[in-house]
Amino acid sequence: MPRSVNSVAKRARRKKVLKQAKGYFGRRKNVWTVAKNAVDKAMLYAYRDRKTKKRNFRALWITRINAGARLHGMSYSQFMGGLKANSIDLNRKVLADLAMNHPEAFAAIVNKVK
């Protein structure tokens, strides 16, 4: 019995990967083996960096809150400790936005904490 090869599925699989490699430079966009490796690596980076993005934003928010708190004579840790003690439930994202864009509102929170 002759060997049966599912060329339709194989072609579809390759077209899918080459479509994902659209926009890559050189052979990475049109040579199957190179494109497959490039797309696999890109997917790994995308998965990893979805996690890293969360870390980076949290660090940015902490930096902004610290800068805002120090303008009013407090350190970041004193400020966050005071928030917890006064039962003020604002997350770091909101606090960072207030510190950057609404300094008068942030000053009111700092005064409440003091």
TrEMBL record:
Species this protein is from: Gillisia lutea
Stated family: Belongs to the bacterial ribosomal protein bL20 family.
PROSITE patterns, per the entry: RIBOSOMAL_L20
SUPFAM superfamilies: Ribosomal protein L20
PANTHER family found in the cross-reference section: 39S RIBOSOMAL PROTEIN L20 (PTHR10986)
Transmembrane segments: none
NCBIfam families: rplT_bact
Matching Pfam families: Ribosomal_L20
Name of the featured protein: Large ribosomal subunit protein bL20
Stated role: Binds directly to 23S ribosomal RNA and is necessary for the in vitro assembly process of the 50S ribosomal subunit. It is not involved in the protein synthesizing functions of that subunit.
